[in-house]
Design brief:
Layout lengths: L21 H14 L7 E4 L11 H8 L4 E6 L8 E2 L11 E6 L6 H11 E12 L9 H6 L4 E4 L17 E7 L8 E4 L1
Parallel strand pairs: 1-2, 1-4, 2-3, 4-5, 6-8
Antiparallel strand pairs: 5-7, 6-7
């Protein structure tokens, strides 16, 4: 639903599942690799991997194209293509990840961000595709006071999450946290 409630482009989506365009993820990864050197052998988790009979899992697909090889996938939906089915918020990860990257359901994003920051190694990255206006709101103020993102990569064009390529009135960005780096300010780049 658009922020003005005028669009029905998302009404047909079940369980808050929206297919993230692989080209937008690749666009982000290209820019991210300009500011951070990332070993292609790191352990990566997509905790809301998605995918279905019509669509591949977007983040794993984009990461594989960039040469990453150790990607674990998890999703709560039974029809997901993920290797593991389950609720990320109720799973224990004793082996910490180097990176957790996903497009979380908006209603669970804050909880997923907090858990992801616990589940990555020191120096590891948490990367979430979120609405740009996620920076606002008093419910997230505590997160910003404790752990600002290191980077925010704003997509200059609105992203379509539907097969008909329609968009709503919301801008999106990849928010990047690095565990142990408690930034006072977030570096912003428009891509």
């Amino acid at each position: 639903m658009s922020s003005t409630n005028r669009s029905n482009s998302r009404d047909s989506h079940i369980a808050d599942y929206y297919v993230t365009p692989i080209d937008k993820i690749s666009e982000f990864l290209d820019e991210f690799e300009k500011v951070e050197t990332i070993d292609k052998n790191i352990q990566i988790l997509d905790c809301c991997a998605g995918g279905d009979e019509k669509h591949p899992m977007s983040y794993p697909e984009a990461l594989i194209k960039k040469g990453f090889i150790n990607i674990s996938t998890l999703d709560i939906r039974d029809d997901s293509l993920s290797e593991t089915k389950g609720d990320y918020l109720h799973m224990d990860y004793t082996n910490k990840m180097d990176m957790i990257i996903t497009n979380p359901p908006f209603s669970l994003a804050l909880d997923i961000i907090k858990k992801s920051l616990e589940d990555v190694k020191e120096g590891g990255f948490v990367i979430m595709l979120l609405r740009l206006n996620y920076f606002g709101g008093k419910v997230r103020k505590e997160l910003w006071e404790r752990q600002m993102p290191k980077y925010c990569f704003v997509h200059h064009r609105r992203i379509s999450f539907t097969d008909d390529r329609k968009t709503d009135s919301i801008e999106y960005a990849h928010f990047v946290w690095q565990k142990g780096h408690n930034e006072q300010f977030t570096q912003l780049k428009v891509i």
